[in-house]
Amino acid sequence: GAVVSQHPSWVICKSGTSVKIECRSLDFQATTMFWYRQFPKQSLMLMATSNEGSKATYEQGVEKDKFLINHASLTLSTLTVTSAHPEDSSFYICSARDVGAGPNTGELFFGEGSRLTVL
Amino acid sequence: AQSVTQLDSHVSVSEGTPVLLRCNYSSSYSPSLFWYVQHPNKGLQLLLKYTSAATLVKGINGFEAEFKKSETSFHLTKPSAHMSDAAEYFCVVSAGGSSASKIIFGSGTRLSIRP
After folding, report:
1. Residues 6+ apart with CB under 8 A from B7
2. Would you call B103 and A113 a contact, using CB atoms and an 8 Å cutoff?
3. How many angstroms away from the CA of B112 is the closest CA of chain A?
4. What is the C-alpha to C-alpha distance for residues A49 and A17, in angstroms, rounded to an integer?
5. pLDDT tens track for A57-102
6. d(CA B90, nearest CA chain A) in Å
7. Residue of chain B whose Cα is closest to the Cα of A106
8. Other residues' Cβ atoms within 10 Å of the Cβ of residue A115
9. Per-residue three-class SS string for chain B
10. Contacts of residue A46 in chain B, CB cutoff 8 Å?
């Protein structure tokens, strides 16, 4: 099946710094990628939908200036957590849909997730 | 509008016994339904999907699910649990007919396997 690569898998940073997480679709093109946040023992919370070549669509309650999303190409989306604070510590997961498989039949392919710890 | 409800937050079964993870959905459109599995500190892996073809869907690792429109259910089953099945399972509904159609996750069911 299709592969989505997410990097880094673990990151520890100091409070006030910014962290960038990359999400790549390795063997398919993804015009749309999704960014999720997952708290311990909870479901995935959709943060934003990343659209290639245009601005991301953020879910209600997600600060767009805090979580910067850039979808510069058909195979790469990045999430930058700006001025990170301890409450931003979480597991961040990206996913992509293979549009070539059909608009409503394409499954989501998930990255392995990125564990962010802000000290 | 669409939603998905996983009826059990935690299911515990003995190794070798059947597994049943329940999922009910609601959707204004003909939905696509998925089951994903997540092991600790990992991303999600697709177990199986329903996309308006056969109502009984077979997936990986011996899992299967049956789409029942009259009951708006898509329960996940496996005849015989294995220790490696212990993980978090998510039922997902997608509907809307476009490449950016809304994807809704259930709250998850944690499956524990007793030796």
Report:
1. B22, B23, B24
2. no
3. 14
4. 24
5. 999 999 999 999 999 888 999 999 999 999 999 999 999 887 666 5
6. 8
7. B99
8. 16
9. CCEEEECCCEEEEECCCCEEECEEEECCCCCEEEEEEECCCCCEEEEEEECCCCCEEECHHHCEEEEECCCCEEEEEECCCCHHHCEEEEEEEEECCCCCCEEEECCCEEEEEEC
10. 103, 105
Q: Which residues contact B101 (CB under 8 A, 6 or more apart)?
A: A103, A104, B94, B95
Neighbours of B89 (CB within 10 A): 24
Q: Give residues 50 to 69 of A whose Cβ lies within 8 Å of B.
A: 51
Give the C-alpha separation, B7 to A26, whole Å: 35
| pLDDT tens profile A7-30 | 999 999 999 999 999 999 998 888
Residue B12 identity (one-letter amino acid):
S
